[in-house]
Amino acid sequence: MNVLIIFDTRYGNTMKLAKAVAEGASxxxxxxxxxxxxxxxxxxxxxxxNDRWKAAVEEYKTLPLxxxxxxxxxxxxxxGSPTRFGNMTAPLKMFIDRTSSLWLNGELEGKVGGVxxxxxxxxxxxxxxxxxxxxxxxxxGLIIAGLxxxxxxLATTGRGGTPYGPTSVSGPMSDQGPTGEELSFARxxxxxxxxxxxxxxxxx
Length: 204
Description:
This protein has helices spanning 13-26, 44-47, 51-60, 68-73, 90-97, 100-104, 128-139, 180-200; strands at residues 2-7, 32-37, 76-82, 112-119, 143-144, 167-169. The chain is of the alpha/beta class and 204 residues long. It has one domain: Flavodoxin domain (Rossmann fold). Strands 1, 2, 3, 4, 5 and 6 form a 6-stranded parallel β-sheet that branches. α7 (128-139) links the parallel β4 and β5 (143-144).
């Protein structure tokens, strides 16, 4: 089955989560994973003024841009984003807003969906961003999968990780990468998404 992970990132923390989700999904037999990005809309002269942002963007640019055909290809679609005022970033929202033709034809109905994010603080949109990203997936008719409390460590975590999807807390300067526990949640999530997709789309 095909698993598509589309994400945005600024300082690379969400990208690290995305890679962990991809790693988890790749651990499922017959899973084919595409790790893809959205359009960068911030001015290059602004990005180049911040060394950490510039370095993250250079790595981010090596990933292919996601398009509608990738959404058609996928059996499972996972969205990831840093938090912006309790919501997803503008580039990811722009990508989603351009999928109206798929919605009109019901082309994504019945696929598996999931979300993940990175925030500066535990209460800076850690859960609201995930819920906001779920809304367009519901409109497209996806079946949303979360991260159950049977996931080791989720019930006792003091940082990232929610039943709505994996998260990480990056600190006020966004300079703290995901912890080992947060990456473990992301890998478990990817594995779960691919497993569910495999069961739904098993052709025997």
